[in-house]
Every structure is written in C-alpha cells, then in structure tokens.
Amino acid sequence: MTTRLVPSATHDRSLRLAAVLDRCAMSWERTGVRHFAELARRLVRHAEPRPGDHVLDVACAAGEALVLAAGAVGPSGTVIGMDVSAHMTRRAARAVVDHGLANCWVATGDVAAGPPHPIPLADGAFDVAMAGIATCLSPWPERVAARCAELLRAGGRFALPWWGLPDPRWIAALDASVRHHQAESAHWLAMDSPFWTVESVHEMLRAAGFASVRTSEEPLLTRFTGPEQWWAWVWSTPAREFFESLPHHLVPVIHREVCAALAALREPDGSLLCRSVARFTVATTPR
C-alpha cells in the first residue's frame, strides 16, 4: 500500500473539523434533543450488522451507532469505532464501558489518513463499515470511502447517512444569522463536496471501488421545545463554528433575531418541528 500524501489546506480543514467536534463533545446529544441518536439508529438498520460480523464505525462520535452495532453482532462479533475528535472518542469509550460491551474498541484517528492507525486495521478484515454524519463535513470523503472499500471483505457493506432537502420553512428563519456576517462554517457543505446529489455520491463510491450502490430517503422529524432549545442544540453541533466566528457583539443580536424568526414557526403546542430528509447510502464491495 502506498503512503497517501495529504495537501496542507485539506489537512487544515481536517484539523478544524476535529477541533469543532472536540468543542461539541460535552453537549452533543445532551440538550434534550435526540437528533443524531436517531440518525445512528437508522444507519445501523441500513448497514444490517449480523451476529458474528466485524464492524468498523468511522466518525463514531459519542458511540450511538457503535453501541447498537455491538448489540447486533453479539459476543462472536467485534466493533471498532474511530473519530477524529479525541473528546468524542472519550465519550464513545465511556458508552462502551457503561453498556458493559466486551466486543468494542474505540480510538482517536482518521481512517482517511491511511496507515498506521491507532488500532491495527487489516485490509479485508471487516464485514460492515459505517460512516457517521460528520463524514459529510470531512475534507476528503472520497478517501474515507476508498479506505473503507479496502478494509471490507468481498461483498462487504458500507453505509453512510447524509442530508437531503432541508425544511424550506426554516431557511428564511436561519438566513437571519447569515446576513450580518459571511463566515465559513463546518456545518455547511464545501462547494467541492460530493454530498450535493445522489448521483455525485454514487459516483464517488463507484470510483472508490464499490460494485453496487443504492440510496434511500426517509423523513426525519426533529422537535424542539422552542427557539431557546434550538439555540442550545445548535451549539452542540458543528454549526457552532459559524457563531463562534462572529464578532462578539453580534452573537446576542443574531440570537434574538433567529429566535424571533423561529417563533413564527411554532406548532400549536408551542414546539418547533423541523421536517428534513435523511438519505442513507449503502455500497457493496465486489464479490
């Protein structure tokens, strides 16, 4: 296997993603909104880990999918989780301990960077690979896919979630945060990202060496008690990077304006309901 050279600009984007995920880790899925846990539950359903399978969980975050996959493969299987964020992998390791799982290992690292990895990963050693939602923000998703293709056995499955169309009612409300200050956010897709269309994602996966690829769409409903819970939640996600980039005096201004705009979207019970589309792509290596 040849050593992969990483362009410095891309490397910087990877370090920035790891840093923002570190800052998210303490509050991730702890604001009363189980958004990413629901994505993880559906991801595992699409990945279909079976008893005895060996599973790699890339971008494992706090271990939501990791724990579910470990239960699916049972004591005869294994699950390895990796994430670029050291703070996230600490939480994932804590989840492994809390659930008493003896078939899981977690390490901080980037599978796209190639070997050596913090945990030995042998080509063809895995039946299933899953990539968490943060893969959409990776500066090199095509490298994640290519490395997972190498690590999977013949006929192995690679599953990843990504976003379809956003809730159109929310777009105008969230634009209130943008008009004051144009800043790059880890929450936004880069222009060179493949995660804009189904066709571009399928093209990326076929180029990575997968033989068959399919994508399904599912509605995803996320309910917030109100604008203030949404504000707390968004700071637990990579979207916080945008707000962190704002001049300090603008943050309370944007907070007021966004919350006022979101208040107009309240349901009859006062809650906010975001209706988005989640896409799940499953690719299979050649047999």
TrEMBL record:
Statement: the UniProt record of this protein carries the keyword Nucleotide-binding: no
GO MF annotations in UniProt: sterol 24-C-methyltransferase activity
CDD domains: AdoMet_MTases
Domain Methyltransferase per the UniProt entry, residue ranges: 55-156
SUPFAM superfamilies with a match to the protein in the record: S-adenosyl-L-methionine-dependent methyltransferases
Alphabetic keyword roster: Methyltransferase, Transferase, Ubiquinone
One GO process term, biological-process aspect: methylation
Signal sequence range: none
Record keyword Glycoprotein present: no
PANTHER family according to UniProt: HYPOTHETICAL LOC100005854, ZGC:194242
Protein name: Ubiquinone/menaquinone biosynthesis C-methylase UbiE
Organism listed in the record: Streptoalloteichus hindustanus
